[in-house]
Design a protein that fits this description.
This is Gluconate 5-dehydrogenase. GO terms for molecular function: oxidoreductase activity. By secondary structure, the protein is of the alpha/beta class. It has 7 helices and 7 strands; from the N terminus they run E-H-E-H-E-H-E-H-E-H-E-H-H-E. The radius of gyration is 18 Å and the shape is globular. The structure holds NADP nicotinamide-adenine-dinucleotide phosphate and D-gluconic acid. D-gluconic acid binds next to loops.
């Protein structure tokens, strides 16, 4: 329904790192709402894999090869996309990595790599698209945050620092550019079943569930891991006119984890 406040007809969305996982699910949701989809990956092989995946669900997506930490490549890609496809109306900063290493065993280089991709990448991407959004009268930026934007846990110091920073970058972009009708919000997924969390869900040698798998199910009121499709509605909401007065907010899509002390043993 083009006149729906949730419609993305006529809008172009760039979702970073959206060949699979959460990024792909969000891009599919935005496409289903009418958006033209652009995505990136770090290799042509990955882009080709993504194009095939989108085609398989009827989406004629546009794929570009660039690393979100490479400012020159990002600036060139945003310019190319604007000319070859359309100016970017919606940016979803999804690309991200995690390293699960006890902090005292993590090298500074490993820490910097996580922060560079998960925090500096969204800065570089947002800086690249905001000037044209201002010229065009507005835009939407959605940063994919995390439970680790609010909580810590063992072995994820770099990731938590980056995602905590991403929450504040979200608030600062909202503060600095809200006057130009740019809304910058976050989505904070809970524990979602994707390749990134596969190690936390692997079956044990005896066939039992991974202890972390059991922990998350006990810690989640919904008593399940999230599916990437659970993020579809929140993403469409934050990309659409329906959220034009929502700014600097992180929408947690976590099945209730942040509200819950956890099931008693
Ligand atoms: P994923 O399965 O590991 O996918 C991450 C994607 O980002 C991959 O396509 C990856 O491409 C891409 N990427 C990584 N570094 C990149 C870079 N420098 N430039 C461009 N693309 C890059 O992760 P996911 O579970 O879908 O998570 C997506 C986002 O949600 C991440 O920001 C993650 O932190 C966040 N998140 C995940 C969960 C969860 O439970 N899964 C929960 C909360 C937040 P390659 O294939 O080339 O590596
Ligand atoms: C971990 C997980 C989490 C999820 C997500 C939770 O090792 O704890 O990977 O960090 O990826 O960020 O919201």
């Amino acid at each position: 329904m083009p006149d729906s406040i949730f419609s993305l007809e006529g809008r172009t969305a760039l979702v970073t790192g959206a060949v699979y996982g959460i990024g792909f699910a969000i891009a599919k949701a935005l496409a289903d709402a009418g958006a033209t989809i652009v995505f990136n990956a770090r290799s042509q092989e990955s882009v080709d894999r993504g194009l095939a995946a989108y085609a398989a669900v009827g989406i004629d997506a546009h794929g570009y090869v660039f690393d979100v930490t490479n400012e020159e490549a990002v600036d060139e890609a945003v310019s190319t996309i604007s000319n070859a496809v359309a100016p970017i109306d919606v940016l979803v900063n999804n690309a991200g990595i995690i390293k699960r290493i006890p902090m005292t065993q993590m090298s500074a280089a490993e820490f910097r790599q996580v922060v560079d991709i998960d925090l500096t990448g969204p800065f570089i991407m947002s800086k690249a698209v905001i000037p044209a959004m201002i010229e065009r009268g507005g835009g939407k930026i959605i940063n994919i945050c995390s439970m680790m934007s609010e909580l810590g846990r063992e072995t994820v110091s770099a990731y938590a620092a980056a995602k905590g920073g991403l929450k504040m970058l979200t608030r600062n972009i909202a503060s600095e550019y809200g006057q130009y009708n740019i809304q910058c919000n976050g989505i904070g997924p809970g524990y979602i079943a994707t390749p990134q969390t596969a190690p936390l869900r692997e079956r044990q040698a005896d066939g039992s569930r991974h202890p972390f798998d059991q922990f998350i199910v006990a810690r989640t009121p919904a008593a399940r891991w999230g599916d990437p499709a659970d993020l579809a509605g929140p993403a469409v909401f934050l990309a659409s006119r329906a959220s034009d007065f929502v700014n600097g907010h992180v929408l947690y899509v976590d099945g209730g984890i942040l509200a819950y002390i956890g099931k008693q043993p």
